[in-house]
Amino acid sequence: MKKLINSPVDVVEEMIEGYVMAHPDYISQLPTNKRSLVTKKANKDRKVGILIGGGSGHEPAFMGYVGAGMADGVAVGNIFASPSPDPILEVTKAIDKGAGVVYLYGNYAGDVMNFGMAAEMADLEEDIEVGMALATDDVASALKAEKEKRRGIAGEFFVYKAAGAAADFGYGLNDVVRMAEKANENTRSMGVGLTPCSLPQTGEPSFEIGEDEMEIGLGHHGEPGIEKGKLESADRVAERLVRDILADIEINNGDDVAVLVNGLGSIPRMELYIVYRRVEQLLNELGITIYRSYVGDYITSLEMGGCSVTLMKLDDELKKAVHHPVDCPMFVQK
User: Fold this and answer.
1) Are residues 152 and 107 in contact, defined by beta-carbon separation less than 8 angstroms?
2) 191 forms bridges with which residues in the sheet?
3) 240/149 Cα distance (integer angstroms)
4) Alpha-carbon torsion 139, 65, 221, 34, what sign?
5) How many CB atoms lie within 10 A of CB 168?
6) Which of 30, 48, 54, 32 is nearest to 40 (CA)?
7) Sign of the C-alpha dihedral, residues 244, 249, 251, 252?
8) What pTM value is reported for the model?
9) How far is Cα 334 from Cα 327, in angstroms, rounded to an integer?
């Protein structure tokens, strides 16, 4: 598949350089590590720092969510690969104000290992307390009884939103972690894959699928889903995704939710709104109120075709967090 790049070897560094150049009022690159970025729009009332990170290729995640109301810094990995402990530690030192730092990341083996190592290094070498919260919102990736094994996908966005708001509210370390975990516990996602992406290093498709097929539950890196079948209409896909989510989490008549319809990279916004239309119709029929909705490319997979639906069940505390304003390079909420 065609890529508009200079070199597969330098693609991540060149992307980061271009990103920092394009958003000079928002982002600083730490001189100690090119993969370590911090915000220029930190909330002065924050006590606790928020650090996010993961592999490249998911833009606007993760760099795009560093700014006012969300993360203070990000560690950037290679494409679909965890950042190493070194940039994570450098960001930790840069954003710590003496009250500790919270790490937010998806439940992937490399991230779990490297963020865990960085947390140990921050404690032993820098005397910085680190709290951690994992995103595990992907219904398709493990049974409900083993939800601690689930992947983090688009629902990570709501975890960042909740933790960033909590930090802005002046919460301490333990309460910021509690808010992030609460958001994750109340969030479920389900996706569908239509076409593969390709890594710049290989140019080969990340998975194989027929022109008239779709795959329910496909992962953001091309991990196998739970069912492959004939391509269906947008309404039928939306119904399947919402049905699987509501089978996994109790959301009832009278409850409020935040909704995210997320594109994986190449699906047109037009199609995402068609999916959202049916999602809202289904929730209205069940008496579930949409408190706030988000439609677009929030956590992608290079040029993969497909989308996901995410629902977060809300209480008053989570509503306040969802409503909180944000000013990041790739996401602004008034």
Assistant:
1) yes
2) 308
3) 22
4) negative
5) 21
6) 30
7) positive
8) 0.97
9) 8
pLDDT in tens, 250-275: 999 999 999 999 999 999 999 999 99
**Is 58 assigned a catalytic role?**
yes
pLDDT one digit per residue (tens) for the chain, 334 residues: 778 768 776 899 999 999 999 999 999 999 999 999 999 997 888 999 999 999 999 999 999 999 999 999 999 999 999 999 999 999 999 999 999 999 999 999 999 999 999 999 999 999 999 999 999 999 999 999 999 999 999 999 999 999 999 999 999 999 999 999 999 999 999 999 999 999 888 888 888 999 999 999 999 998 999 999 999 999 999 999 999 999 999 999 999 999 999 999 999 999 999 999 999 999 999 999 999 999 999 999 999 999 999 999 999 999 999 999 999 999 999 9
Distance, in Å, from the CA atom of 72 to the CA atom of 50, rounded to the nearest integer, reads: 5
Note whether 162 and 229 are within 8 A (CB): no
Q: Are 135 and 162 within 8 A, CB to CB?
A: no
Q: Which two tokens stand for residue 203?
A: 């140019």
Q: Is 221 a catalytic residue?
A: yes
Q: For residue 229, which amino acid is it? A: G
Does residue 230 sit in helix, strand or coil? strand
Residue 266 token pair: 């190449």
> What letter represents residue 61's amino acid?
A
Using DSSP, state whether 2 is helix, strand or coil: coil
300 CB-contact burial (10 Å; exposed 0-12 / middle 13-18 / buried 19+): buried
Contacts of 301 (CB under 8 A, 6+ apart): 57, 58, 197, 206, 220, 221, 222, 264, 265
Catalytic site residue from 23, 220, 221, 324: 221
Residue type, 228: K
Per the residue annotation, which of 23, 58, 220, 324 is the catalytic one?
58
**Burial track 103-118 (b if 16+ CB lie within 10 A, e otherwise):** bbbbbbebbeebbbeb
Three-state DSSP state, 77: strand
62 prior amide bond cis, ω within 30: yes
Distance CA 293, CA 224 (A): 28
